[in-house]
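Morning!

As promised:
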Amino acid sequence: DIQMTQSPSTLSASVGDRVTITCRASQSLSGWLAWYQQKPGKAPKLLISKVSNLESGVPLRFSGSGSGTDFTLTISSLQPDDFATYYCQQYSTYPWTFGQGTKVEIK
Amino acid sequence: QVQLRESGPGLIKPSETLSLTCTVSSGSIRNYYWTWIRQPPGKGLEWIGHYYRATTDYNPSLKSRVTISVDTFKNQFSLKLSSVTAADTAVYYCARESVEPAAGGLVDSWGQGILVTVSS
């Protein structure tokens, strides 16, 4: 299985901060990398596909970048609605696998 | 906008078979990957497997115990997980994977999730 490692596991930030979450894969993903946002008690929501493609309706303050095995999710100016847990996911090779999650908390 | 809803028992005993159904509204069930993903309480997400046009793929860690099937007439798909233990306690999500890329993998729609507890 491809192992997905996110860092940090928890991130404390304030409204307006620029936030960066990293995701490292145990092998190259050829760009098949997605990001999801999950709020407590809710299902995850797809934010970004194919490393950097923003899904319809997702605010432009979210962006994704990276290649090969190293990827980044950036929130340019953190908003109250963004406090949540974020997961990266590879869909390059079966079985699809997720990172362990990064919880973005209010500082 | 597709909607998915899980149904099934919330409590089952060890060694029993977990059976869940997902009802898909708004759209045909024929043209997408239909997927099950689970999340143990307080933990991360685990892909269980998916079904697409009479073909299934399963996570090797669960493959010997999992069956995913589709009923196109009812617009439903189902999960069966046999010989459950406490380690199978989780929120189970039914979901849809896009057909782009062709192998699936991008989960673009999710059900609300159902907590299944394994306990005697």
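Chain A has a mean pLDDT of 97.

Hope this helps with the figure draft.
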